[in-house]
Automatic annotation (TrEMBL), chain A:
It comes from Acetonema longum DSM 6540. Coiled coil: none annotated. This is LAO/AO transporter ATPase. InterPro entries: AAA+_ATPase, GTPase/Isobutyryl-CoA_mutase, GTPase_ArgK, P-loop_NTPase. It comes from the Bacteria. The keyword Nucleotide-binding applies.
From TrEMBL, chain B:
Its cofactor is adenosylcob(III)alamin. It comes from the Bacteria. It comes from Acetonema longum DSM 6540. One of its GO terms (molecular function) is isomerase activity. Signal peptide: none annotated. InterPro entries: Acid_CoA_mut_C, Cobalamin-bd, Cobalamin-bd_sf. The lineage of its organism: Bacteria, Bacillati, Bacillota, Negativicutes, Acetonemataceae. SUPFAM superfamilies: Cobalamin (vitamin B12)-binding domain. Coiled coil: none annotated. Keywords: Cobalamin, Cobalt, Isomerase, Metal-binding. This is Cobalamin B12-binding domain protein. PROSITE patterns: B12_BINDING. It holds the Pfam family B12-binding.
Length: 312, 130
C-alpha cells in the first residue's frame, strides 16, 4: 500500500493521512494497521492525565522539548472532548505547543474523544501505533482533562503521569478510587502556588496507604511547567520508571495485557458486527425491540434466542 | 464512523485580536466540525505545517492587520510545497473588497468580511469541502 510505504519512508503527509484513515474508519484502515503492525512496539508511550487546567499541554510541550534536547524524536496525541450534542469539538492543545510545530522531530496530532467513555478510544491506540511505526522514540498521549474515573490511559501507556495542581478538592479525594490510583509518577504542577506543600503531604499519605503492587512507589515531582522548572527532574524520573518496569518484568506484563485487551476488543467488535448484520438483515431486530418495549417478551429471552439461532 | 470535517482556525502574523476567530471556531464546533484552534501570531510556515499534521480539510485564517495579501497566499504556496495541497482555504477579517479578487486568484477560495453570519461560513464549508 502506497500510504504505508510512504509513511515508512518518512512522509509526514502519509503519517497524517494514515491517522485520519483509522480515525474515520475508512475501508483501508484495517489494511493500513495490518501492514504497520510489524513496525510497532519500539516507542516509549507516556500518558499525561489530570484535571482540566492542571497544565497538561504546557507540561507536555516542555517534556517534549527536553526529549528533543536528548536527541529523541517525539509524537504527541492531544485529546480534547467532543460535544455530545453537535459532535463537534474545539481541539485547542496545540496552542501550548506552537513552538514545536516547526521541529521536524516532533509530530502533533489533535483528536476529539468522539463518544468514547474513558476519554480514549481504540483510535487513540491505533494513532499511537502509527506514530510508533513512523519511528517516534517517545509518544505522549495527553488525555482530555479528566475528572475522577477516566482511567483508560493506563491501558495504553508504559508510564502514566498524573498531573495535579494545588487547591483542588479536599483530602477525601486522595482516598477515592480513580485517577489517583493510576499514576506511575505524580507531577505537582504550578507548584509555586499556595497549597503545594499540603498537596504533596496528602499525596504522600495516600501512597503510604496504597498497597505495593509492583515494588515501585510513585515519586512525586514538583514542576512549574510555564517556567520550565522541574522538567529535567521529571524526565529523569520517567527514565527511572521505565528502567524499573523493564527490569522487573512489569513492562512485559503490561504489554501482554494490552495485547490481550486489544485482541479481545477486536474480537468483540467483529462478533457483534456479525451478529448485528445478520439479525438486522431482514429488519427483524426492530420488530423484536418493539415486542420487548411492549413487554410482550423480555430482553433476556430474546437475546438468548438470537444467539441460539445463530449457533445453529 | 462517519467522516468529521476538520478545520484549522489560525491567525497569521502580528495580530492579537482573536475574538472573531473564536466566535467562528465555536460556530463551527456547534455545526459538528472538529476545529483545531492554534491561537494568535503564527507564521505561515507554522500554519501550513499544523494543517499538514492535523490533516484538516479546511484552513480558515483570520487577519485584521492588513498583511493578508502576503500571508494568506504564502500559506497556500507552503501547503503545495509540502505536498498537502487540496485543502479548502478560506479567509476572514478586515479585508478590503478590492483585495478579494487577488486573494482568490492566489488560491483562497472565499473571503468572509465583518458582519458575515456564521451560518454562511458553515454552509460554505459544507458545500465546498471535498
Amino acid at each position: 500500500m502506497q500510504i504505508v510505504e510512504e509513511l515508512l519512508k518518512g512522509s509526514r503527509v502519509a503519517l497524517a493521512r494514515a491517522i485520519t484513515t483509522v480515525e474515520n474508519e475508512y475501508d483501508e484502515a484495517v489494511e493500513v494497521m495490518r501492514q504497520l503492525y510489524a513496525h510497532t512496539g519500539r516507542a516509549h508511550v507516556i500518558g499525561i492525565t489530570g484535571p482540566p487546567g492542571a497544565g497538561k499541554s504546557t507540561l507536555t510541550d516542555k517534556l517534549a522539548k527536553e526529549y528533543r534536547n536528548m536527541g529523541k524524536t517525539v509524537g504527541i496525541i492531544a485529546i480534547d472532548p467532543t460535544s455530545p450534542f453537535s459532535g463537534g469539538a474545539i481541539l485547542g492543545d496545540r496552542i501550548r505547543m506552537n513552538d514545536l510545530t516547526l521541529d521536524e522531530g516532533v509530530f502533533i496530532r489533535s483528536m476529539g474523544t468522539r463518544g468514547s467513555l474513558g476519554g480514549l478510544s481504540r483510535k487513540t491506540s491505533e494513532a499511537v501505533k502509527i506514530l510508533d511505526a513512523f519511528g517516534k522514540d517517545v509518544i505522549f498521549i495527553e488525555t482530555v482533562g479528566v475528572g475522577q474515573s477516566e482511567v483508560d490511559i493506563v491501558k495504553m501507556a508504559d508510564t502514566t503521569i498524573v498531573v495535579m495542581v494545588p487547591g483542588l478538592g479536599d483530602d477525601i479525594q486522595a482516598i477515592k478510587a480513580g485517577i489517583l490510583e493510576i499514576g506511575d509518577v505524580f507531577a505537582i504542577n504550578k507548584a509555586d502556588r499556595d497549597g503545594a506543600d499540603r498537596l504533596n503531604i496528602e499525596l504522600e499519605a495516600m501512597l503510604d496507604l496504597s498497597q505495593e503492587r509492583t515494588g515501585w512507589r510513585p515519586p512525586i515531582k514538583r514542576t512549574v511547567a510555564s517556567q520550565s522548572e522541574g522538567i529535567r527532574e521529571l524526565v529523569a524520573t520517567i527514565s527511572e520508571h521505565i528502567a524499573f518496569v523493564n527490569q522487573s518484568g512489569e513492562l512485559e506484563k503490561r504489554r501482554t495485557q494490552r495485547t490481550r485487551n486489544e485482541m479481545l476488543a477486536l474480537l468483540q467488535e467483529a462478533v457483534s458486527r456479525q451478529i448485528l448484520n445478520r439479525t438486522n438483515a431482514d429488519g427483524q431486530f426492530d420488530a423484536l425491540v418493539k415486542t420487548v418495549e411492549h413487554r410482550e417478551k423480555d430482553p433476556y429471552e430474546v437475546v438468548e434466542k438470537i444467539l441460539r439461532d445463530l449457533m445453529k | 464512523m462517519e467522516k468529521r470535517i476538520r478545520v484549522l482556525v489560525a491567525k497569521p502574523g502580528l495580530d492579537g485580536h482573536d475574538r472573531g476567530a473564536k466566535v467562528v471556531a465555536r460556530a463551527l464546533r456547534d455545526a459538528g466540525f472538529e476545529v483545531v484552534y492554534t491561537g494568535i501570531r503564527l507564521t505561515p510556515e507554522q500554519i501550513a505545517e499544523a494543517a499538514l499534521q492535523e490533516d484538516v480539510d479546511v484552513v480558515a485564517m483570520s487577519l485584521l492587520s492588513g498583511a493578508h495579501n502576503t500571508l494568506f497566499p504564502k500559506v497556500v504556496t507552503l501547503l503545495k510545497e509540502k505536498g498537502a495541497a487540496g485543502k479548502l482555504i478560506i479567509g476572514g477579517g478586515v479585508i478590503p473588497d478590492a483585495d478579494i479578487p487577488g486573494l482568490k486568484a492566489a488560491g483562497v477560495s472565499e473571503v468572509f468580511t465583518p458582519g458575515t453570519p456564521t451560518n454562511s461560513i458553515v454552509d460554505y464549508i459544507k458545500a465546498n469541502v471535498k
